[in-house]
Amino acid sequence: MTEAPMDPHSSPEPDWALETLAIRAGHDRTHEQEHAEPIFPTSSFVYGSAAEAARKFSGEEPGNVYSRFTNPTVRTFERRLAAMEGGERCVATSSGMAAILATALALLSAGDEIVASRSLFGSTVSLFDKYLGKLGITTRYVELSDLAAWEAAMTPATRLLFAETPSNPLSEVVDIEALAEIAHRHEAWLAIDNCFLTPALQKPLALGADLVIHSATKYLDGQGRAIGGAVVGRDKELEELFGVVRTCGPCLSPFNAWIFTKGLETLNLRMKAHCENAQALAEWLEAHPAVARVHYSGLASHPQHELAKRQQQGFGAVLGFEVKGFEVKGSAGKGEREAAWSVIDATRLLSITGNLGDVKSTITHPATTTHGRLSDDQRAIAGITDGLIRVAVGLEAIEDIRADLARGLDALV
After folding, report:
1. What number of other Cβ atoms are within 10 A of residue 314's Cβ?
2. Could you say which of 248, 265, 282 is where a domain stops?
3. Domain match, 66 and 145 both
4. Backbone dihedral region of 28: left (phi > 0), alpha (psi from -120 to 50 degrees) or beta?
5. Looking at the structure, do residues 329 and 394 belong to the same domain, yes or no?
6. pLDDT at residue 31 above 80?
7. pTM for the whole structure
8. Do 248 and 309 lie in a common domain?
């Protein structure tokens, strides 16, 4: 399906900065000449004749056919995000998980193999192992930052390398340029989940990745209002992925696309403020006597701190920290989980929820929520301990965030 031509006013200039692209790219003004992007909440579109309908359904003439795969509001979001990521094209989906599924269905067949980081979101692991496994697609997992392990895992059947960087929730980082070199030398694609940093802080395509995956639910929205996903890359791969969305139907609603488009307008400002708060909180946590370890790539103590400085324009807003356990009556050891839960339960400001990317700070216990579907062995290998807490640092005053966490942490010492 050929896309409709762009309004000259929506075509990004080659020298536009990211902040400008986030506000101006992708909007085709209608005959009403509206200033803000409109919403098109329609399922279908009307034609002037049967011949026009035939031309548009066949793709001979660009235009809208059916909102499952052609909608002006969704198209605006896709064009804007593609411009911001530096990709040729974007395909939007109903969720971040739908984006990953559509990518796999578009690129892979029975007998193909994925090499992926062990440090993946729990639902991504379930998708790869349980559902893609049913289709005859095998996944092998390696340590995210260990390039030698990625190389060793490659076989002639490997078609896709998949990584989140930074990882959730330990902020591990991989050298994207080096990983892209490994993938391309073995004639495989590299897909990077960029939802933690967004194009405001990291450009995987510029570093050699073939595809960028987003859960738009997170920072692209920024206010926890809607569910959606996106894939950005070259037109060749994205055309097949578009076919998956068109045929299988994991499409983004126009209303959610409009929310994400408006979210992009403030993305740069929000991400800078998120990073500032997260850095201050990580440094405070690292000095707290109840905290055993802080996982945040903005800290000099982080093993990939220098790499993160080199390939990122900021360190993001998600951090993990491990609390020291305490003696539990009737138990032989220290209760790390009980300690973590006591800190979480003592909060009054932070929202106890598994979501992230919101202006509101959120807190969760990964071992029993976001990574709860993994086996004990899988969690151990991924470094998800019972004492680990994840905080997605929002935009509240940093002194209020610290005070909220101090309430529980101070009680442990």
Report:
1. 21
2. 265
3. yes
4. beta
5. yes
6. no
7. 0.92
8. no
Domain contains 3: no
Question: Quick one: 150 and 98 in the same domain?
Answer: yes
Residue 231, beta-bridge partner list:
91, 213
DSSP codes, 74-127: HHHHHHHHHHHHT-SEEEEESSHHHHHHHHHHHH--TT-EEEEESS--HHHHHI
Question: Are 37 and 118 in a shared domain?
Answer: yes
Q: What domain range includes position 373?
A: 268-412
Choose the final residue of a domain: 214, 248, 265: 265
Please check whether residue 201 is in contact with residue 312, taking contact to mean a CB–CB distance below 8 angstroms: yes
What total of structural domains would you count in the chain?
Answer: 2
What DSSP element (H or E) covers 72? helix 72-85
- Cα angle value 198/204/206 (rounded, 5°): 120
Q: What is the reported pLDDT for 262?
A: 97
**Listed range (15-19, 197-201, 212-216) with the worst mean pLDDT:** 15-19
Report the alpha-carbon distance of residue 150 to residue 88 in Å, rounded: 27
- pLDDT for 5 equals 52
How many other CB atoms are found less than 10 A from the CB of residue 406? 16
Shared-domain flag, residues 42 and 160? yes
* The pLDDT value given to residue 7: 54
Q: What is the pLDDT of residue 273?
A: 98
pLDDT digits (tens, 9 = 90+) for 55-70: 999 999 999 999 999 9
| Residues 219 and 237 placed together within one structural domain of the fold | yes
Of the candidates 204, 155, 206, the one whose C-alpha atom is nearest the C-alpha of residue 182 is 155
Q: Could you tell me the CATH number of the domain that includes residue 67?
A: 3.40.640.10
User: Which helix (H) or strand (E) segment is 340 a member of?
Assistant: helix 336-346
Tell me which residue has tokens 């001979």. Answer: 60
Per-residue pLDDT tens digits for 70-88: 999 999 999 999 999 999 9
Q: Which two tokens stand for residue 340?
A: 């973590």
Average pLDDT over residues 340-353: 96
Which of these, 365, 370, 367, lies nearest to 350 by C-alpha position? 365
pLDDT at 105: 98
